[in-house]
Write a structure and sequence with these properties.
Length: 129
């Protein structure tokens, strides 16, 4: 019966649950905007780590973002991430057996994607809805 001390993960969920009711039944639409692209953790994810296609896109999308007018997001096809917003990856050489790290992403937290479907491996399962 004794309650264990809450883990870090559990205690971070509690305050969020208080605000969640007004979002029930709505869609989890994550905007495809520069701020979210920059916070996306997919470029660091083990699922993509050995993908040549992804590594190329990381390089080229960085350049594209640097050269684009401020606030303008690059073509989603060229960005190897933010799959929670844009859906499945275009690169074919990902390793989906590895763990998704979306749970450590600020975007995931902000949009409460834990409660979305799917809520992980968006690169494989498609965008959060
Ligand atoms: S939740 Fe996952 S897919 Fe969405 S921005 Fe964060 S790391 Fe990228
Ligand atoms: S959606 Fe998840 S599994 Fe896919 S690349 Fe992003 S962090 Fe990795």
């Amino acid at each position: 019966m004794g309650r264990d001390a809450p883990t870090e993960e559990k205690s971070s969920i509690t305050p969020r649950d208080r605000n969640v009711t007004f979002e029930r039944g709505t869609e989890f639409v994550v905007p495809y905007v520069e701020e979210n692209i920059n916070r996306c953790r997919c470029p660091q994810c083990p699922v993509q780590a050995d993908s040549r296609c992804v590594q190329d896109k990381i390089r080229s999308s960085k350049e594209a973002m640097e050269n684009a007018p401020a606030g303008e997001a690059p073509d989603p096809e060229n960005v190897p991430g933010i799959y929670c917003s844009e859906g499945t990856a275009t690169c074919q050489d990902l390793n989906f057996d590895r763990q998704c790290i979306c749970e450590s992403c600020e975007v995931w937290n902000e949009y409460d994607l834990k409660a979305a479907k799917p809520n992980n491996h968006f690169c494989k399962h498609g965008k959060a809805t």
